[in-house]
């Protein structure tokens, strides 16, 4: 790196961004929730979604709260997602898949293994399901759990590992949500998430390991018309420290905050558009990003 105190990182990792991009390539980081995701549709419903997800831009990277000069990120993705609401599981569940395509331009500063990287391609698909634990429209209370497996078959280039759409490792994400209506079309939602990672055994010829990452996702939404609602969101991330060949990499343990807003509108009774904007407001480790997401959903 250009700053002497980070010179020890360079031989081991390029800021350990496999951790970064396993999360940043998040076609719905796939596991980011949006407002009212856990308000269940009736059994027999199917939904297809297209995410322009998200456009991300950052001009600085932080490690242990300090900036790393010469770092920038410009990334965008398109993701296709399909879910089926069925009671075949014994409870209402939603088998689903997510397939992303990502373009990433990354600069990580002089002295690193691959300081400038530009890669596009199909990312790792995600397979999973949500299970409804509470589904009570009369009292406006909903709860559920979700599990996703990330299958490492996406495009991966070990010489440009940080920008590659695929992560070359298995991953599993578990989420638990509780949603409650507060009256007058207002909903408060809280989702706890844990992400677990297998090893990437070809990270510039080394083995990258990552601790679990935990996140708390909170939404507060309210109707502004019968077909339109807005939401405020806050995400808190903790953990996810990285090691290379068994040696811990400083400056990769996250304790980050992000805030954002969403606007969703039912164009027809079966078609919804949603716009999300967000930015990182406190970053201990990672890029300080600004994000824009557009989502289209069709129910049938």
What is the name of the CATH topology? Porin
Strand order of the largest sheet: 1-4-5-7-8-9-10-13-14-17-18-20
Gross CATH architecture: Beta Barrel
What percentage of the residues does DSSP assign to strands (E)? over 45%
Number of helix segments? Answer: 2
Query: Which CATH first-tier class would you pick?
Result: Mainly Beta
- Unreliable stretches, pLDDT < 50, 5 or more residues? 1-30
- Any idea what the radius of gyration is? 19 Å
- Mean pLDDT reading: 84
N to C succession of SSEs: HHEEEEEEEEEEEEEEEEEEEE
Spatial separation of the terminal alpha carbons: 52 Å
Structural class determined from secondary elements: mainly beta
**Integer tally of domains:** 1
Number of strands: 20
Helical percentage:
under 10%
Apparent shape = globular
How would you name the CATH homologous superfamily?
monomeric porin ompg
| Largest sheet report | 12 strands, antiparallel, barrel
